[in-house]
């Protein structure tokens, strides 16, 4: 089925470890983004990309890196995990531009616990 | 800081009643979107309203947008137990590519 695929669904890390959260979409969307969701905080934008080779920071970028080498993939890297990064991470994609007609398609999320 | 603030934070109603959620935002926007999130799941897009539109309908959903007051409302008519979820507004700011979410409204619909 077409959509946004996130892996893994669950992950436990030790403080200081690094890891990559994977995100792939098969809808040929230009725009992809990463959000984290914490209780009572809604979704906060970490990084986003408007196309291959183009990335930019969101509201809470510290401690995370991204790259966009292809249209389909947008991995999120945690450089040195901290307990404050315990959260649920969502990847989303969308067509973009002034003629946008529909919103974002979200993945099912990655639940990350840092101990 | 987050762009949108939803009001109320939580809402409990009986099946058949209407549910109204409000969203306020701070800067000029290209469009405003509403999403639903069932517990533990990803977000699902409900409706998008552009900055030059004032009202939009989709099934039992009605969205209004008042750019002069920087506010929007989502009305769900004839609520069902299956509408129980969290609802978020998100704004696409003018001259940026960012979509910023509010903190959400938790809706509980009792059978």
List the helices and strands and how they pair.
The complex is a heterodimer of chains A (about 120) and B (about 110).
Chain A: E1 4-7, E2 10-13, E3 19-25, E4 31-37, E5 43-51, E6 54-57, E7 64-66, E8 76-78, E9 87-94, E10 105-106, E11 110-114
Chain B: E1 5-7, E2 10-14, E3 19-24, E4 29-37, E5 43-50, E6 55-58, E7 61-66, E8 71-76, E9 85-93, E10 99-101, E11 105-110
Parallel strand pairs in B: 2-11
Antiparallel strand pairs in B: 1-3, 3-8, 4-5, 4-9, 6-7, 7-8, 9-10, 9-11
Helix content of chain A: under 10%
Taking the sheet with the most strands of chain A, its summary is: 7 strands, mixed
Report the end-to-end length of chain A measured between terminal Cα atoms: 35 Å
Mean pLDDT score of chain B: 92
Distance between the termini of chain B: 37 Å
Shape descriptor of chain A? globular
H/E topology pattern of chain B:
EEEEEEEEEEE
Q: Total helix count of chain B?
A: 0
Count of helix runs of chain A: 0
Please characterize this protein's 3D structure.
The complex is a heterodimer of chains A (115) and B (111). Chain A is built from no helices and eleven strands. By secondary structure, chain A is an all-beta fold. In chain A, the strands form two sheets. In chain A, strands 2, 4, 5, 6, 9, 10 and 11 form a seven-stranded mixed beta sheet that branches. Chain A has a four-stranded antiparallel beta sheet with strand order 1-3-8-7, with no helix packed on it. By secondary structure, chain B is mainly beta. Chain B contains no helices and eleven strands. In chain B, strands 2, 4, 5, 9, 10 and 11 form a six-stranded mixed beta sheet that branches. In chain B, strands 1-3-8-7-6 form a five-stranded antiparallel beta sheet, with no helix packed on it. In chain B, a hairpin with a 4-residue loop joins strand 7 and strand 8 (71-76). The model of chain B has no long low-confidence stretch (mean pLDDT 92). Classes of the chains: A mainly beta (115), B mainly beta (111). The interface between A and B is medium-sized, with 29 and 24 residues.
């Amino acid at each position: 089925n077409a959509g946004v695929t996130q892996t893994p669904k669950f992950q436990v890390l030790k403080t200081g470890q690094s890891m990559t959260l994977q995100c792939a979409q098969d809808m040929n969307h230009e725009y992809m983004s990463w959000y984290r969701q914490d209780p009572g905080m809604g979704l906060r934008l970490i990084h986003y990309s408007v196309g291959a080779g183009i990335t930019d920071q969101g509201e809470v970028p510290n401690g995370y890196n991204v790259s966009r080498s292809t249209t389909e993939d947008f991995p999120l890297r945690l450089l040195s995990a901290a307990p404050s990064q315990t959260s649920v991470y969502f990847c989303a994609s969308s067509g973009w531009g002034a003629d946008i007609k529909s919103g974002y398609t979200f993945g099912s999320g990655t639940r990350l616990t840092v101990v | 800081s987050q762009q949108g603030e939803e009001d109320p934070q939580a809402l409990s109603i009986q099946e058949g009643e209407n549910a109204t959620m409000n969203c306020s935002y701070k800067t000029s926007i290209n469009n405003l979107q509403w999403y639903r999130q069932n517990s533990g799941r990803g977000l699902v897009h409900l409706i998008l309203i552009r900055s030059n539109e004032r009202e939009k309908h989709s099934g039992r959903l009605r969205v209004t947008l008042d750019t002069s007051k920087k506010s929007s409302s989502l009305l769900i008519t004839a609520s069902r137990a299956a509408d129980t979820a969290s609802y978020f507004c998100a704004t696409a700011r003018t001259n940026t590519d960012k979509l910023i979410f509010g903190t959400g409204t938790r809706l509980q619909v009792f059978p």
